[in-house]
Amino acid sequence: MDPVHLQPHPGAKATIMAIRIIFKPYDLTLEVEEGENLLKAALAAGVHINASCGGAGVCGKCRILLEAGRVECPETTLLTREEWELGYRQACQCRVLSDVTVRIPPESLLDKRTITRRRAGVSLRPSPIDIPALKAQGLYNPAFQKKFLQLPPPSLADNLCDLSRLEGGLARTYGLNNLTLDFLLVRKLAQVLRRQDFAVTATLDFAQRRSRNPRLVNIEPGDTTARHYALAVDIGTTTVWVQLLDLAQGEIIGQAADYNGQLAYGDDVISRILYSQKEGGLATLQKAVVATLNRIIAGLLKKHRLPVEEISHLTLAANTTMTHLFYAIDPKYIRLSPYTPTACHIPPVRARHLGLDLPEHVFIYSVSSVSSYVGGDIVSGVLASGIYKEPKLTLYIDIGTNGEIVIGNQEWLACAACSAGPAFEGGGIRYGMRAAKGAVEEVSINPETAEPMFLTIDAAKPKGICGSGLINLLAALMEAGIVLPNGRFRDDLKTDRIRESENGREYVLAWGADTESGEDLTLSELDIDNLMRAKAAMFAGYLTLLESVGLRLKDIEQVILAGAFGNFINLENAITIGLLPDLPRECFQFVGNASLMGATLLAFSRELLEEERRVADMMTNFELSEVPSYMDQYISALFLPHTKADYFPTVTARLKGGAKG
Question: How far apart are CA 520 and CA 518, in angstroms?
């Protein structure tokens, strides 16, 4: 396949000789000037390389293989001497000095096919998106509605202006008075009314929180009431989801997802906030996520053969930082004490003004945030799960880079965020990776021989360990008695699976001859330390938030696990390592992508669109970093499963039994 020649990099000067970079396995060629940063060049070519730290050079995830040419790149402890000699380099640290050919190895690639996979055998909490049930409750009432009108044509005896004619028809036929108007509609009104002899369909927005009067946002010739669509969007730090909704029939007709284009600038919200403070950084991040959305939306519309003109509105749920970046609002003060976002409630915005390839009449409605680290995704999830109107005392958990917790019921809600870090998404773990082809996810270990048995995603050669796989591996090591409660490997085991390394002792899960990269796949004591810190942050969060409202773990009546990671977590293993509380297993429910579910509900029900603001206002936020007892709880949780055995009675009993056996 011949390389595809792209235009010279915009930053290249005519007086400097262009240098060619060929990216394998894509066979893409980019021309840049001498000294260009290799990671920046990859971004310009549209080649995605994992760059968890946003190019700071500290994560080691953006590895490339230099096949030909010269680059300037400092040696780093994140690459072994053997890897360096084989030609591996960190893309973010390389500056090109000649024509080069680089190969993106499998571990540095993202595989979006795994985003939409589902774990078999997991029973999800019943979805509230049940249209017959919504209709029975009187809640199926989309905020955007189409109304058909057959207006009398004007004459010399009736030469009322076109706009007054339209307003009068809506008042007579549907009892709609005191409308507010979108000015852009007036410009096309005369032509649209006459296209089918004054038979028209008006689109009205009933979600005007302040005026309470419907807003007339669009007008189409003829009767188009049967063709009325909307979009529900969940912008996550890692992935972006979009659902295509049929408002006329009350159905979800399609969905799609892709990795958030902002990943190239950092894995977590803090690194992206820092990037946004660079010159042009905020605009770059905003354009990156908008480009992702445009690509997903275009693909959905093409698949379902729908014209973009039939989309009427978009509902959006996202964490506070992602919301700010999407709207190009400076997120600087989110990360600085006293942690104040610019806005928790964003007024409706015309989609086209943000760069979305949608018609002028399409507005975006976003779910309200509560605080800097409890955002609209959590409010949307609480709305979708229905815990705000249930009597049961519920612990709602969304585990990610920034784990969010909500506790409460129909009377009150308290919330907090824990900085768990990226360990459960593979960050900070030598061979950690996102869930993709070749990632180890299921593990068991023979306690007699220490030999492992494992499964990878798509049954491919192992190339790393995903978040759920890390939990399962650590639990298996505990169950086999190979890892001590302090996170250290036993030194009295006669097995070549455990050996010394620069990061303490390590366990060899797979030998290099059997892996995708040819390297041994290992878990070190340093990796275990990072996992213990992540799970300790979450568990300390549960206890501190409960203490803050005068409750204990035993008072919890149900636990809801939300988010994509929650879908793939092995409940028993997560409890074993101390990530989740040791409560009766029947208390736990999986809810899936509750953030997207909530955004969909808002599109289907104007009552719920108004309710989300009330739900956000119900949630009292606690800044755990400001609660003195949080650090004490965190230190106590830096143990497997915990320093206090009383918190994990079933795990303690099982591990003791295994030790006796």
Answer: 7
